Amino acid sequence: MLNWVRIFNGEMRRTKEFDNLRELEKYDIVWINICGTDVGLVSEVASALGKDCSTKVVCNLDYAVEYFQHHIVTGKKTLFEFINDLASADLVVAQEPYQYKLMKYIVEENAKVGGIKPTKVALIPHPADTRIKKPIPEGVFIPHDQRLEILAVMYHRYDGQLWIPSTIVSNLQAEKGKPITMLMGYTGGPEIINLRDKLFDLIQPYTDWSEYIYLLAHCILGFEYRTHHAHGRFAVECAMLGIPLVSNIHSYNSRILFPKTTFRPSQFKEMRDTLKKLLDDPEFYEEVWKYAYEKVDEWGYEHKKKELLEALEEVEK
Fold first, then answer.
1. Which domain holds residue 157?
2. What residues are paired with 204 via a beta bridge?
3. pLDDT digits over 235-256, tens only?
4. Cβ contacts of residue 293 below 8 Å, gap of 6+?
5. Which residues are 193's β-sheet partners?
6. Is residue 1 helix, strand or coil?
7. Are 167 and 272 contained in the same domain?
8. The pTM is what?
9. pLDDT value of position 73
10. Residue 14: exposure state from Cβ atoms within 10 A (0-12, 13-18, ≥19)
11. Which of 193, 196, 249, 309 has its CA 20 to 30 A from that of 4?
12. d(CA 28, CA 30)
Protein backbone atom coordinates (compact mmCIF):
# COMPACT_ATOMS: atom_id res chain seq x y z
CA MET A 1 0.00 0.00 0.00
CA LEU A 2 2.85 2.40 0.78
CA ASN A 3 3.89 2.59 -2.87
CA TRP A 4 0.35 3.50 -3.94
CA VAL A 5 0.33 6.26 -1.32
CA ARG A 6 3.58 7.62 -2.72
CA ILE A 7 2.27 7.56 -6.30
CA PHE A 8 -0.68 9.81 -5.46
CA ASN A 9 0.96 11.81 -2.65
CA GLY A 10 -1.71 10.41 -0.37
CA GLU A 11 -2.08 9.40 3.25
CA MET A 12 -2.20 6.09 5.05
CA ARG A 13 -4.91 6.16 7.72
CA ARG A 14 -6.85 3.76 9.94
CA THR A 15 -10.63 3.98 9.99
CA LYS A 16 -10.65 4.39 13.77
CA GLU A 17 -8.86 7.73 13.30
CA PHE A 18 -12.07 9.19 11.84
CA ASP A 19 -15.01 10.26 13.98
CA ASN A 20 -17.23 9.70 10.96
CA LEU A 21 -16.28 7.72 7.86
CA ARG A 22 -18.08 10.35 5.80
CA GLU A 23 -14.91 12.42 6.30
CA LEU A 24 -13.33 10.21 3.62
CA GLU A 25 -15.23 12.11 0.94
CA LYS A 26 -12.43 14.69 0.87
CA TYR A 27 -10.30 12.11 -0.98
CA ASP A 28 -10.57 11.25 -4.68
CA ILE A 29 -9.70 7.60 -4.02
CA VAL A 30 -10.06 5.50 -0.89
CA TRP A 31 -7.89 2.40 -1.28
CA ILE A 32 -8.76 -0.42 1.12
CA ASN A 33 -6.51 -3.45 1.48
CA ILE A 34 -8.57 -6.51 2.29
CA CYS A 35 -6.97 -9.27 4.28
CA GLY A 36 -9.08 -11.86 6.05
CA THR A 37 -9.66 -9.84 9.21
CA ASP A 38 -10.73 -6.73 7.25
CA VAL A 39 -13.69 -8.36 5.51
CA GLY A 40 -16.69 -6.05 5.86
CA LEU A 41 -14.71 -2.81 5.83
CA VAL A 42 -15.29 -1.94 2.17
CA SER A 43 -19.07 -2.10 2.45
CA GLU A 44 -18.93 -0.09 5.67
CA VAL A 45 -16.94 2.69 4.00
CA ALA A 46 -19.06 2.66 0.83
CA SER A 47 -22.25 2.87 2.88
CA ALA A 48 -20.94 5.82 4.89
CA LEU A 49 -19.95 7.73 1.74
CA GLY A 50 -23.23 7.07 -0.04
CA LYS A 51 -24.00 6.47 -3.70
CA ASP A 52 -23.85 10.16 -4.67
CA CYS A 53 -20.29 10.65 -3.40
CA SER A 54 -17.64 11.16 -6.11
CA THR A 55 -14.94 9.42 -4.05
CA LYS A 56 -13.96 6.11 -5.62
CA VAL A 57 -13.70 3.14 -3.28
CA VAL A 58 -11.05 0.64 -4.41
CA CYS A 59 -10.99 -2.82 -2.86
CA ASN A 60 -7.54 -4.38 -3.15
CA LEU A 61 -7.15 -8.11 -2.55
CA ASP A 62 -3.87 -8.10 -0.65
CA TYR A 63 -4.04 -11.71 0.43
CA ALA A 64 -3.65 -15.05 -1.30
CA VAL A 65 -7.20 -16.21 -2.05
CA GLU A 66 -6.46 -19.68 -0.67
CA TYR A 67 -6.09 -18.19 2.82
CA PHE A 68 -9.43 -16.40 2.98
CA GLN A 69 -10.69 -19.86 3.89
CA HIS A 70 -9.53 -19.32 7.48
CA HIS A 71 -11.61 -16.17 7.86
CA ILE A 72 -14.80 -16.55 5.82
CA VAL A 73 -15.44 -20.23 6.48
CA THR A 74 -13.88 -21.22 9.80
CA GLY A 75 -13.37 -17.70 11.22
CA LYS A 76 -15.64 -14.89 12.40
CA LYS A 77 -16.31 -13.44 8.94
CA THR A 78 -18.85 -14.74 6.43
CA LEU A 79 -18.86 -15.36 2.72
CA PHE A 80 -21.80 -12.96 2.43
CA GLU A 81 -19.72 -10.16 3.98
CA PHE A 82 -16.89 -10.85 1.54
CA ILE A 83 -19.19 -10.82 -1.52
CA ASN A 84 -20.85 -7.67 -0.22
CA ASP A 85 -17.45 -5.98 -0.01
CA LEU A 86 -16.73 -6.78 -3.65
CA ALA A 87 -20.17 -5.55 -4.72
CA SER A 88 -19.84 -2.32 -2.69
CA ALA A 89 -16.54 -1.21 -4.24
CA ASP A 90 -16.25 0.93 -7.35
CA LEU A 91 -13.23 -1.11 -8.41
CA VAL A 92 -11.73 -4.41 -7.26
CA VAL A 93 -7.98 -4.71 -7.83
CA ALA A 94 -6.51 -8.21 -8.06
CA GLN A 95 -2.80 -8.94 -7.83
CA GLU A 96 -2.50 -12.04 -10.01
CA PRO A 97 -4.55 -13.91 -12.65
CA TYR A 98 -5.94 -16.70 -10.44
CA GLN A 99 -7.25 -14.14 -7.99
CA TYR A 100 -8.49 -11.92 -10.83
CA LYS A 101 -10.51 -14.69 -12.48
CA LEU A 102 -12.01 -15.83 -9.17
CA MET A 103 -13.04 -12.30 -8.15
CA LYS A 104 -14.48 -11.60 -11.61
CA TYR A 105 -16.48 -14.81 -11.45
CA ILE A 106 -17.83 -13.96 -7.99
CA VAL A 107 -18.92 -10.39 -8.81
CA GLU A 108 -20.51 -11.41 -12.11
CA GLU A 109 -22.47 -14.29 -10.58
CA ASN A 110 -23.55 -12.08 -7.68
CA ALA A 111 -24.70 -9.41 -10.14
CA LYS A 112 -26.87 -11.95 -12.00
CA VAL A 113 -28.57 -13.01 -8.79
CA GLY A 114 -29.11 -9.46 -7.56
CA GLY A 115 -29.93 -7.93 -10.90
CA ILE A 116 -27.20 -5.32 -10.51
CA LYS A 117 -24.25 -4.08 -12.53
CA PRO A 118 -21.11 -6.13 -11.69
CA THR A 119 -18.19 -4.35 -10.07
CA LYS A 120 -15.24 -3.86 -12.41
CA VAL A 121 -12.28 -6.10 -11.58
CA ALA A 122 -8.79 -5.13 -12.78
CA LEU A 123 -5.50 -7.02 -12.69
CA ILE A 124 -2.91 -4.51 -11.44
CA PRO A 125 0.06 -5.94 -9.50
CA HIS A 126 1.51 -3.62 -6.88
CA PRO A 127 4.00 -0.96 -8.02
CA ALA A 128 7.63 -0.80 -6.93
CA ASP A 129 10.06 2.01 -6.26
CA THR A 130 12.35 1.32 -9.22
CA ARG A 131 14.88 3.89 -8.02
CA ILE A 132 16.32 0.87 -6.20
CA LYS A 133 17.84 -0.13 -9.55
CA LYS A 134 20.37 2.69 -9.34
CA PRO A 135 23.82 2.09 -7.85
CA ILE A 136 24.56 3.15 -4.28
CA PRO A 137 24.00 5.83 -2.96
CA GLU A 138 21.03 6.77 -5.20
CA GLY A 139 19.76 3.18 -5.15
CA VAL A 140 20.82 -0.22 -3.80
CA PHE A 141 22.27 -1.94 -6.89
CA ILE A 142 25.69 -3.52 -6.28
CA PRO A 143 27.99 -4.58 -9.17
CA HIS A 144 28.00 -8.35 -9.57
CA ASP A 145 31.74 -8.68 -9.06
CA GLN A 146 31.36 -7.14 -5.59
CA ARG A 147 28.68 -9.54 -4.38
CA LEU A 148 28.87 -12.50 -2.02
CA GLU A 149 28.35 -16.11 -3.11
CA ILE A 150 24.95 -16.26 -1.41
CA LEU A 151 21.78 -17.90 -2.67
CA ALA A 152 18.82 -16.10 -1.07
CA VAL A 153 15.83 -18.35 -0.32
CA MET A 154 12.63 -16.43 0.42
CA TYR A 155 10.45 -17.68 3.28
CA HIS A 156 6.67 -17.21 2.98
CA ARG A 157 4.91 -17.19 6.32
CA TYR A 158 1.51 -18.17 4.86
CA ASP A 159 2.54 -21.70 3.96
CA GLY A 160 5.82 -21.93 5.89
CA GLN A 161 7.56 -24.12 3.30
CA LEU A 162 11.06 -25.05 4.46
CA TRP A 163 11.98 -28.62 3.65
CA ILE A 164 10.97 -28.55 -0.04
CA PRO A 165 13.06 -25.43 -0.80
CA SER A 166 15.91 -26.97 1.17
CA THR A 167 15.91 -30.15 -0.95
CA ILE A 168 16.29 -28.02 -4.06
CA VAL A 169 19.05 -25.64 -2.92
CA SER A 170 21.12 -27.72 -0.47
CA ASN A 171 24.60 -28.95 -1.47
CA LEU A 172 24.36 -27.22 -4.82
CA GLN A 173 27.80 -27.94 -6.25
CA ALA A 174 28.88 -25.58 -9.02
CA GLU A 175 32.16 -25.38 -10.90
CA LYS A 176 33.31 -22.46 -8.76
CA GLY A 177 32.14 -23.99 -5.50
CA LYS A 178 29.07 -24.31 -3.32
CA PRO A 179 27.04 -21.13 -2.69
CA ILE A 180 25.97 -20.23 0.83
CA THR A 181 22.21 -20.69 1.29
CA MET A 182 20.45 -17.98 3.30
CA LEU A 183 16.80 -18.23 4.34
CA MET A 184 15.34 -14.72 4.34
CA GLY A 185 12.30 -13.35 6.17
CA TYR A 186 11.91 -16.21 8.66
CA THR A 187 9.18 -15.53 11.24
CA GLY A 188 9.44 -18.67 13.36
CA GLY A 189 10.72 -19.19 16.90
CA PRO A 190 13.49 -21.07 18.75
CA GLU A 191 13.71 -23.77 16.09
CA ILE A 192 15.81 -21.31 14.08
CA ILE A 193 18.97 -23.03 15.35
CA ASN A 194 17.79 -26.39 14.01
CA LEU A 195 17.00 -24.82 10.66
CA ARG A 196 20.51 -23.48 10.37
CA ASP A 197 22.03 -26.81 11.30
CA LYS A 198 19.76 -28.97 9.16
CA LEU A 199 18.42 -27.01 6.21
CA PHE A 200 20.20 -23.72 5.46
CA ASP A 201 23.61 -22.19 6.07
CA LEU A 202 22.30 -18.83 7.29
CA ILE A 203 18.96 -17.65 8.67
CA GLN A 204 17.93 -14.01 8.31
CA PRO A 205 14.83 -13.38 10.47
CA TYR A 206 12.11 -10.99 9.37
CA THR A 207 13.48 -7.46 9.64
CA ASP A 208 12.80 -3.92 8.46
CA TRP A 209 12.74 -3.41 4.72
CA SER A 210 15.88 -1.24 4.41
CA GLU A 211 18.05 -3.87 6.11
CA TYR A 212 16.45 -6.68 4.11
CA ILE A 213 16.91 -5.04 0.70
CA TYR A 214 20.54 -4.16 1.49
CA LEU A 215 21.29 -7.78 2.40
CA LEU A 216 19.49 -9.07 -0.68
CA ALA A 217 21.47 -6.73 -2.93
CA HIS A 218 24.66 -8.61 -1.97
CA CYS A 219 23.32 -11.99 -3.16
CA ILE A 220 24.04 -13.61 -6.51
CA LEU A 221 20.92 -15.80 -6.83
CA GLY A 222 17.36 -15.99 -5.57
CA PHE A 223 14.98 -18.89 -5.04
CA GLU A 224 11.40 -19.20 -3.81
CA TYR A 225 8.87 -22.01 -3.69
CA ARG A 226 5.17 -21.22 -3.38
CA THR A 227 2.19 -23.48 -2.74
CA HIS A 228 -0.30 -20.58 -3.04
CA HIS A 229 -0.99 -17.99 -5.72
CA ALA A 230 0.57 -14.55 -5.24
CA HIS A 231 1.74 -11.59 -7.26
CA GLY A 232 5.33 -12.22 -6.11
CA ARG A 233 7.04 -9.17 -4.62
CA PHE A 234 10.30 -11.08 -4.26
CA ALA A 235 10.52 -11.44 -8.05
CA VAL A 236 10.25 -7.67 -8.49
CA GLU A 237 12.92 -7.04 -5.87
CA CYS A 238 15.29 -9.55 -7.47
CA ALA A 239 14.68 -7.99 -10.87
CA MET A 240 15.49 -4.48 -9.61
CA LEU A 241 18.71 -5.74 -8.02
CA GLY A 242 19.84 -7.77 -11.04
CA ILE A 243 19.48 -11.12 -9.25
CA PRO A 244 18.42 -14.14 -11.34
CA LEU A 245 15.48 -15.85 -9.64
CA VAL A 246 14.31 -19.44 -9.87
CA SER A 247 10.68 -19.81 -8.87
CA ASN A 248 7.41 -21.52 -9.76
CA ILE A 249 4.35 -20.38 -11.66
CA HIS A 250 2.34 -19.56 -8.54
CA SER A 251 4.33 -16.31 -8.50
CA TYR A 252 2.76 -14.19 -11.24
CA ASN A 253 5.60 -11.66 -11.40
CA SER A 254 8.15 -14.46 -11.73
CA ARG A 255 6.37 -15.74 -14.82
CA ILE A 256 6.71 -12.32 -16.46
CA LEU A 257 10.12 -11.22 -15.23
CA PHE A 258 11.91 -14.60 -15.22
CA PRO A 259 10.20 -16.67 -17.94
CA LYS A 260 13.21 -18.95 -18.49
CA THR A 261 13.68 -19.80 -14.83
CA THR A 262 10.07 -20.23 -13.63
CA PHE A 263 8.61 -23.73 -13.49
CA ARG A 264 5.63 -25.77 -12.42
CA PRO A 265 5.72 -26.62 -8.69
CA SER A 266 6.46 -30.30 -9.44
CA GLN A 267 9.52 -29.57 -11.61
CA PHE A 268 11.97 -30.02 -8.76
CA LYS A 269 14.86 -31.31 -10.86
CA GLU A 270 14.45 -28.52 -13.44
CA MET A 271 14.61 -25.88 -10.70
CA ARG A 272 17.76 -27.34 -9.21
CA ASP A 273 19.41 -27.83 -12.61
CA THR A 274 18.60 -24.23 -13.52
CA LEU A 275 20.18 -22.91 -10.33
CA LYS A 276 23.32 -24.87 -11.20
CA LYS A 277 23.26 -23.58 -14.78
CA LEU A 278 23.03 -20.00 -13.52
CA LEU A 279 26.10 -20.62 -11.38
CA ASP A 280 28.10 -22.31 -14.16
CA ASP A 281 27.00 -20.40 -17.27
CA PRO A 282 27.91 -16.67 -17.16
CA GLU A 283 26.11 -15.90 -20.44
CA PHE A 284 22.86 -17.47 -19.25
CA TYR A 285 23.22 -15.72 -15.90
CA GLU A 286 23.60 -12.33 -17.59
CA GLU A 287 20.75 -12.99 -20.02
CA VAL A 288 18.33 -13.79 -17.17
CA TRP A 289 19.12 -10.86 -14.89
CA LYS A 290 19.34 -8.26 -17.66
CA TYR A 291 15.96 -9.23 -19.13
CA ALA A 292 14.28 -8.86 -15.73
CA TYR A 293 16.23 -5.70 -14.90
CA GLU A 294 14.89 -3.95 -18.02
CA LYS A 295 11.38 -5.44 -17.84
CA VAL A 296 10.79 -4.38 -14.23
CA ASP A 297 10.47 -0.74 -15.27
CA GLU A 298 6.86 -1.66 -16.03
CA TRP A 299 6.31 -1.88 -12.27
CA GLY A 300 7.43 1.73 -11.84
CA TYR A 301 5.22 4.42 -10.37
CA GLU A 302 4.21 6.11 -13.62
CA HIS A 303 3.27 2.83 -15.30
CA LYS A 304 1.12 1.67 -12.39
CA LYS A 305 -0.50 5.08 -11.91
CA LYS A 306 -1.57 4.99 -15.54
CA GLU A 307 -2.99 1.45 -15.17
CA LEU A 308 -5.06 2.37 -12.14
CA LEU A 309 -6.40 5.62 -13.59
CA GLU A 310 -7.39 3.82 -16.79
CA ALA A 311 -9.26 1.20 -14.75
CA LEU A 312 -11.07 3.94 -12.82
CA GLU A 313 -12.00 5.66 -16.07
CA GLU A 314 -13.66 2.41 -17.18
CA VAL A 315 -15.75 2.54 -13.99
CA GLU A 316 -17.24 5.83 -15.18
CA LYS A 317 -18.50 4.32 -18.44
1. 130-299
2. 184
3. 999 999 999 999 999 999 999 9
4. 133, 239, 240, 242
5. none
6. coil
7. yes
8. 0.93
9. 67
10. exposed
11. 249
12. 7
